[in-house]
Structure to design on (517 residues):
């Protein structure tokens, strides 16, 4: 077809404009019959993955002992400094947190503490409903944080692997008795 | 004396129904936009959210009614009132049903056009009295837009007047008993509707209050009840343009015979108006806002010649007896 004159072109573009607007409206009108994507939250809970980063808990090992050894790595990793804790050592040599405090009004649920934790003690859970009427209630002490279960790593027990001498289930585990651990080297002996 | 009292009662009833309807439209609009955007829209206050407007109203009543110290106080307060009053006045000439209708003015159509023109004052004065740049730009845009769209809105309805031979809206409706005017005045209807959208400052022609560039346009400085009045005026004018379209082109309360006896005339009228209101809402969800020069050139270069052509063709057909024998 020969090139249209400017006038015809203008009319054609006006018609195109008109039809494209009508088409848009038709497409939007179609959405009358599509289902809304909204999740009506309080009544209808969204699915949160098991590894979702929500409320922080302190887990226990399979023997029911606290996993946390109070090493302070989580507090050091925390970008907003919302974790405060103090380490103590029990009579049997086991280390644990004397107090452990997380200020959830500061916490940004970044999960760095979980990554930093060498004993899988501190873990984030898929619970996001942290709202409180009083800000002070968002400061969680150790008794609020500590749970009965093992969290995401059911079999892991730090003291069964580490070379520290402690009591496990009332039995003494001395140095060299841990899983995959060789007996200690006698540094005063002459054998290679 | 009794007649006057009855008339007053009728006026009060019409106003008392129109204002809640306009308020409900806010909820209808938000709900429909939600549905069309695959959301739900407000559905919390009352059953399916029907009381949302009441909650909004209570909230807006609790707002501080602030008058900017740099504004022209009198005009600033007056502007929203002018807007709402002009739109409400227009409803006086609309025949809602065979028996309901405030006034049987013999120049009803002209009265409507006059009130629509006066409503511009509200926007322009609001923009001017606010003494702020956004508001002034919005007001200026409103003036230019309304002046250009007013022109062919008047011309587009002249086809209707030619065919029915009257300016009285009730008689225009009655003249459509043999067939709605949309059959012969389709182009006129399209032009009237486009002009109506521009008149009521609705998307896609909401340039006077274009949020993205002018914050809120002419009502940037308004808050509280005065803002609510602007809001009310906007939704009332949506209802007004819908009602006018129904009256002029879709036979008002009339329906073709098998349907006519199913529902009372008033219900048919309201249903038709509601369809138009939904169309206005659909426009808002789907179409983007044109640039301002595009808006004006569209008005003057396409719509005005088209309206004149429509008038010419209608007149020719009327003279040669092409339409109704």
């Amino acid at each position: 077809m020969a090139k249209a004159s400017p006038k015809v072109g203008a009319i054609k573009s006006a018609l195109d404009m008109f039809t494209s607007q009508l088409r848009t409206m038709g497409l939007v009108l179609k959405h009358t019959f599509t289902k809304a994507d909204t999740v009506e939250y309080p009544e209808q809970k969204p699915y949160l993955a098991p590894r979702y980063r929500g409320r922080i808990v302190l887990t226990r090992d399979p023997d029911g002992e606290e996993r946390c050894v109070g090493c302070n790595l989580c507090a050091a990793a925390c970008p907003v400094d919302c974790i405060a804790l103090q380490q103590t050592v029990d009579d049997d040599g086991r280390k644990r947190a004397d107090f452990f405090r997380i200020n959830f009004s500061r916490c940004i649920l970044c999960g760095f503490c979980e990554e930093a934790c060498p004993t899988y003690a501190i873990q984030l859970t898929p619970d996001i409903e942290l709202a409180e009427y009083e800000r002070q209630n968002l400061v969680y002490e150790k008794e609020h944080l500590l749970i009965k279960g093992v969290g995401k790593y059911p079999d892991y027990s730090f003291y069964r692997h580490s070379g520290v001498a402690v009591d496990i289930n009332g039995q003494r585990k001395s140095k060299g008795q841990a899983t995959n651990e060789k007996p200690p080297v006698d540094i005063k002996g002459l054998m290679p | 004396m009794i007649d006057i009292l009855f008339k007053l009662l009728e006026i009060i009833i019409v106003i008392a129904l129109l204002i809640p309807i306009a308020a409900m439209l806010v909820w209808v609009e938000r709900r429909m936009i939600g549905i069309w955007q695959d959301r739900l829209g407000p559905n919390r206050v009352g059953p399916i959210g029907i009381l949302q407007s009441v909650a909004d109203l209570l909230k807006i009543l609790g707002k501080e009614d602030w008058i900017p110290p740099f504004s022209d106080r009198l005009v600033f307060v007056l502007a929203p009132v002018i807007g709402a009053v002009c739109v409400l006045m227009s409803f006086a000439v609309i025949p809602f049903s065979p028996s309901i209708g405030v006034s049987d003015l013999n120049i009803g159509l002209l009265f409507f056009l006059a009130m629509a023109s006066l409503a511009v004052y509200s926007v322009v004065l609001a923009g001017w009295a606010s003494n702020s740049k956004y508001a002034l730009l919005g007001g200026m845009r409103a003036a230019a837009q309304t002046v250009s769209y007013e022109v062919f809105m008047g011309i587009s309805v002249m086809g209707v007047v030619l065919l029915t031979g009257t300016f009285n809206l009730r008689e225009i409706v009655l003249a459509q008993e043999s067939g709605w005017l949309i059959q012969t005045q389709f182009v006129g209807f399209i032009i009237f509707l486009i002009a109506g959208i521009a008149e009521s400052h609705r998307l896609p022609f909401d340039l006077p209050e274009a949020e993205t560039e002018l914050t809120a346009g002419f009502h940037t400085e308004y808050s509280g009840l005065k803002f609510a009045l602007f809001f009310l005026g906007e939704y009332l004018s949506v209802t007004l343009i819908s009602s006018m379209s129904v009256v002029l082109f879709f036979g008002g309360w009339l329906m073709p015979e098998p349907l006519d006896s199913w529902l009372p005339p008033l219900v048919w009228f309201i249903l038709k108006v509601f369809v138009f209101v939904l169309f206005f809402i659909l426009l808002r969800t789907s179409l983007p806002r044109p640039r301002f020069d595009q808006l004006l050139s569209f008005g003057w270069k396409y719509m005005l010649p088209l309206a004149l052509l429509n008038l010419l063709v209608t007149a020719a057909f009327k003279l040669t007896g092409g339409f109704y024998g």
Q: What stands out?
A: The two ends of chain B are 45 Å apart (CA to CA). Chain B touches chain A at residues 34-40, 282-283, 285-287, 302 (CB under 8 Å). Residues 66-320 of chain B form one domain. The mean pLDDT of chain B is 84.
